[in-house]
Amino acid sequence: MEPPRGFLASLWNFIRFLPYFIGLLILGTIKGVILCPFILVIVTVGNSAIVLGLWPVHVFYSFYCVLSAKLIGPVLKLVSCICLPIILFLWLPIAIASSIVGGAAYGFLSPMLATFQAIDLGKANKLYHCIYDGTWDTVKGSCTIVRDVGDICYHSYFSVMDDLRIQKSSTGKYYEIRLLYLPVALFCGLLGSMVDMLVITVIAAYKSPYMLIKGWYRLFHDCIGREGPFLETICVPFAGLAILLWPLAVVGAFLGSIVSSIFLGAYAGVILYQESSFWYGICYIVASISIYDEYSNDILDMREGSCFPRPTYRAETTSRTNSHAGSFSKSDSLGNPPNRSNSMNASMIELKARDSRELADAFFEACRCNGEILASEGVITRKDFEDAKSSRDNGKTISIGLPAYCFLQVLLRSAKANSAGLLLNDNTEITSTNRPKDSLYDWFFNPLLILKEQIKADNLSESEEKYLGRLVLLGGDPESLNNSNIGSPPESELRRAELEALARRLRGITKSLSRFPTFRRRFDSSMKSVLDELAKKNGESRKCEAEGQNIRRSKSMFVRIFSQKSFKDKRSNTETDQEAQMVGNEGDIEIK
Predict the structure, then answer these.
(1) Torsion over CA of 557, 563, 569 and 570, rounded to 10 degrees?
(2) Angle, nearest 10°, between helix axes 7-68 and 157-166?
(3) Which of 343, 376, 434, 451 allows an S-S link to 558, with CB 3.0 to 4.6 Å?
(4) Residue 487 and residue 493: Cα distance in Å, rounded?
(5) C-beta separation of 507 from 141 below 8 A
């Protein structure tokens, strides 16, 4: 839609949209006020029950893992055991308070935002959607929040602690702490927190009115001229809501600055310990104020630089200073701006059609499809699915191996196509220029690109690809790996070691990804779809699935488990393989 031209046209357009926006705001507010208490109770009670119920287990297991960890030295274990009670006792009030605040905010804002989204041009009967949207969806969303918190407190926590307990150093060395510098580092960290919180609070209070006025000026300017967020009609309610809530954003930024200043100043203790110098710790306290001042100037488009000095607080000024402080400077952040011309090419159009949510949907759909295919070939069995569902899998085959196997297929496809990024199943190419800008993609996208380049440089043969796939899928279960007949290992020990290193790296990336709260919920849903489809295709009930036998892996495994016919009479290998292929083709369907 073209924006109106002229002041009178812009003013009339603003007046015409104002009652429309106010009506939606009132309706959304009423829905938020009604639903907020119920959502608050669900989130607070659910999260508090999970945190309080698992807290004794967390206390015991934390001490157990720290004391039995092989990567931690005796002095560091002693210090950790002294600090652990403080962290564990603070965890309870922080978790409960966060549940109360988060539940109230979600219960009020989610219905309000859903009311504005209901006027989407693609929806029919908009009045009904304005009233209904954000009601039952918010209730289900609150239950999802409780489920994700449960996954973090149970699966993610124990996964991290098990790694701490099991991991060993390849060189035989362990992490140790220099006890002599510890009291001085704690004092310097406390001093830095006090100084930074006081000074940064003053700076934030000084710049908050400027942020409020400038934000309102920009929003009203765009509102009158129908520019920026007000350019499209569907965005007008959200932009109008931003005008009303902008003071809350300013207050949130002010409070966030105060909280962040505590951790920013406490890092002085880390600097002192790393550099073994009290002087460098004091220099960091002064430099951290300058870092914040310069960063806030960049955010508000104020004068570049800072009026505070920035002394050097690292001995290696060329490398380590840039890694810790350079990311906050405007010269680094804006010195190499992204190429704007690339934003108009075809790959950017693909990005608009495939945002982060759709990429996640495509990944879990690939997990479902590959799970059905591997089950039809007998590589993974029904027992593997049941173990993963009942948390007995421990990352052996399904929970870690299957997602890692899906990543491997993407890497192999991208390497063969000589892609600059990652080539998905629908031939959509995700590169560093058009990928979603979520933090999750920042942490995992570059390591996957490195693995893709390593696979491309190794120039794997077909047998090596199968062997690598077997390592990735079954690497966590030595018994299943030894019984598998897929892919023969390379004759060269060096080549075998390279493939094993690639498999360990890919499984490690997947294991880190699986610790995120939404991963397990989405992955369990995909695996449930696999089991439901397998049972539906072969006329088996869920009761029969639970009573299934643990049959040895073979290529015709899927036939022997799920076929309704009796296999007591002998059959030739050719007939069995053909039957497995038939069932595998039938199981390759799409689940909505």
Answers:
(1) -40
(2) 40
(3) 376
(4) 15
(5) no
Let me know: does 372 contact 529? Beta carbons within 8 Å. Answer: no
Residue 129 to residues 200, 235, 299, Cα–Cα distance (Å): 45, 17, 37
Q: What length does the chain have?
A: 592
CA distance 310 to 288: 8
d(CA 114, CA 132): 9
The letter for the amino acid at 154 is Y
- Residue labelled with tokens 């080539």: 423
363 phi, psi to nearest 5 deg: -65, -45
The Cα–Cα gap between 590 and 368 comes to 9
- Angstrom distance (rounded) from CA 487 to CA 576: 20
Rg (CA), the chain: 28
Block residue for tokens 């918010």 = 138
Per-residue tokens: 365: 């759909």
Strands 429-430 vs 422-423: parallel, antiparallel or unpaired? antiparallel
Q: With bands split at pLDDT 50, 70 and 90, how would you rate the model's confidence at 89?
A: very high
CB-based contact 550:381 (threshold 8 Å): yes
Question: Model-level pTM?
Answer: 0.68
Which tops the pLDDT comparison, 559 or 477?
Answer: 477
CB atoms within 10 A of CB 212: 17
CA angle 515, 519, 521 (to 5 degrees): 120
Give Cα separations from 430 to 326, 341, 473, 505 (angstroms): 28, 17, 24, 21
Tokens of 89: 């006792």
Phi, psi of 83 (to 5 degrees): -85, -25
Burial of 61 (0-12, 13-18, 19+ CB in 10 A): middle
> What H or E segment, with its residue span, contains residue 572?
none
The Cα 47–Cα 39 span in angstroms is 12
Q: What average pLDDT does the chain have?
A: 76
pLDDT of residue 231: 58
Identity of the amino acid at 231 = L
Task: Please state, in angstroms and rounded to a whole number, the distance separating the CA atoms of residues 201 and 204.
Answer: 5
Asked if residue 410 lies in contact with residue 423, where contact means CB atoms within 8 angstroms, the answer is yes
Buried b (16+ CB within 10 A) or exposed e, 86-102: eeeeeeeeebeeebeeb
The pLDDT-based confidence of 331 (bands split at 50, 70, 90) is very low
What are the boundaries of each domain within the chain? 1-177, 180-331, 346-586
Distance CA 450, CA 457 (A): 11
Residue 434 near residue 348 (C-beta atoms within 8 A):
yes
For range 358-387, the mean pLDDT: 81
CA angle 388, 394, 395 (to 5 degrees): 85
Distance between CA atoms of residues 562 and 539, nearest Å:
9
Q: What is the mean pLDDT of residues 557-563?
A: 32
Tokens standing for residue 285: 């306290």
* 100 membership: H or E segment, kind and range: helix 74-117
Tell me the C-alpha distance between 537 and 530, whole Å. 11
Beta-bridge mates of residue 407: none
Cα(first)–Cα(last) distance of the chain, in Å?
A: 34
| pLDDT at position 327 over 50 | no
Q: Looking at the DSSP assignment, which residues form a beta bridge with residue 429? A: 423
pLDDT (mean) for 385-404: 74
What token pair was written down for 537?
């295709």
